[in-house]
């Protein structure tokens, strides 16, 4: 059993990832209204938590690296800290690169998914910070087992996958996305090579979406001309 996973992203009409690069709102359209849709739709799903890639989480977590001398050697077993009924802020950080300094991001309790290769000192830092952790195999790449553990250990039933493009691409490749929720800004980026909302980083010729098809569930126009698409992912 694993959570139902919705990939929820905002994008330009050319599928790009960074809103700071998009064209400005047209005359009479409130940029604040456009920006506000993302969190409103996020909240409307009533998910148990959200998950982002290591790079995206590095931009959100505000801690700095600490040296913990003589950290005890601990078995690579899940560590459940004090969640306190909060929603979960989850990342996949195979090498243990993100530093938190506290047990939450934006009020949501941090759960990090690690490779077993991380150091005992890093695990000690996480425990000091009150962060929960689980493991996704030796290299931190067993995404399917990590998703099952989120369900069994933390009771996650519905999860929002919120970028960046690389982690979204990895989830697509592993057939772990059940639905796409895409907010299309009335804007364009336009530059070749700019990151997109699904940016699988795999071998040449690989097709991460192979064996899957998208079916439109709904299409809604929101205030300011934002278009909200929902697609179910069907396995072929
Ligand atoms: N629409 C938006 O506004 C929006 C939303 C989300 C993110 N973003 C932006 O997206 C940018 C980051 O996107 P990104 O695509 O470069 O990075 P990302 O998806 O946030 O993180 C990628 C990292 O995740 C880790 N990872 C774990 N398992 C992986 C797997 N199976 N496959 C690939 N990576 C895996 C790797 O960490 P290691 O390198 O440590 O191995 C990898 O480098 C940021 O600038 C962020 O601000 C924008």
Which percent range fits the helix content? 10-25%
Radius of gyration: 18 Å
How much β-strand is present in the residues?
25-35%
- What is the CATH topology of the largest domain? Dihydrofolate Reductase, subunit A
Number of helices: 5
The global form is globular
Query: What number is the mean pLDDT?
Result: 97
Number of domains: 2
What structural class do helix, strand and pairing data support? alpha/beta
**How does CATH name the architecture of the largest domain?**
3-Layer(aba) Sandwich
Characterise the protein shown here:
The structure is a single chain. The protein has 236 residues and is α/β, with parallel strands linked by helices. The chain folds into two domains: 1-48 and 157-236, Dihydrofolate Reductase, subunit A (3-Layer(aba) Sandwich); 52-155, no CATH class. It contains five helices and ten strands. Strands 1, 2, 3, 4, 5, 6, 7, 8, 9 and 10 form a ten-stranded mixed beta sheet that branches. Helix 3 links the parallel strand 5 and strand 6. The longest helix has 14 residues, at 31-44. The protein is globular, with a radius of gyration of 18 Å. It binds NADP nicotinamide-adenine-dinucleotide phosphate. NADP nicotinamide-adenine-dinucleotide phosphate binds next to strand 1, strand 2, helix 2 and helix 5.
